[in-house]
Automatic annotation (TrEMBL):
It is a lipid-anchor. May be involved in protein transport from Golgi to cell surface. The ZDHHC9-GOLGA7 complex is a palmitoyltransferase specific for HRAS and NRAS. Belongs to the ERF4 family. Its main location: Golgi. Coiled coil: none annotated. Signal peptide: none annotated. This is Golgin subfamily A member 7. One of its GO terms (cellular component) is Golgi membrane.
Length: 143
């Protein structure tokens, strides 16, 4: 199995070997979801089931963020009544779920991806167009 790494070690001691991009899946319209097809570049680094579970969880969280419910309706009504100044003192449901997604990605990087020499980038940093996975090359092996 691959050597384990911490995220700090990866950033300081490892060079970027490659990047893998997981594209958006538009089969269900413009709903924010990503393809679960396993990239061949990751075969030696991570288990297929673990990768698919990560993408499925992200897809479910984005679906939760975009779901229209009573909370979203009330937020919209309050926004209209206060000329949108309400958002200066409260987070929207969407913003709360985005924070939950960022926390989940950080946990996955710490527990799953980082130790395998990978770094999962939050899709919000790429305009929700792709999930970027950076593959690091261990410099200590080449020296």
């Amino acid at each position: 199995m691959a050597e384990t790494h911490s995220l700090q070690d990866l950033r300081q001691q490892a060079a970027v070997a490659a990047k893998v991009f997981i594209q958006r899946d538009y089969t269900n319209g413009t709903l924010c979801q990503f393809q679960t097809k396993f990239p061949s570049d990751l075969e030696t680094r991570i288990d297929k089931q673990q990768f698919e579970e990560t993408v499925r969880t992200l897809n479910n969280l984005y679906a939760e963020a975009e779901k229209l419910g009573s909370q979203s309706y009330i937020e919209g009504c309050l926004a209209c009544l206060t000329a949108y100044t309400i958002f200066l003192c409260m987070e929207t449901h969407y913003e709360k779920v985005l924070k939950k997604i960022a926390k989940y990605i950080q946990e996955q990087n710490d527990k799953v991806y980082g130790p395998r020499g990978l770094l999962l980038t939050d899709p919000i940093e790429r305009g929700l167009r792709v999930i970027e996975i950076t593959i690091f090359e261990d410099r200590s092996l080449t020296q």
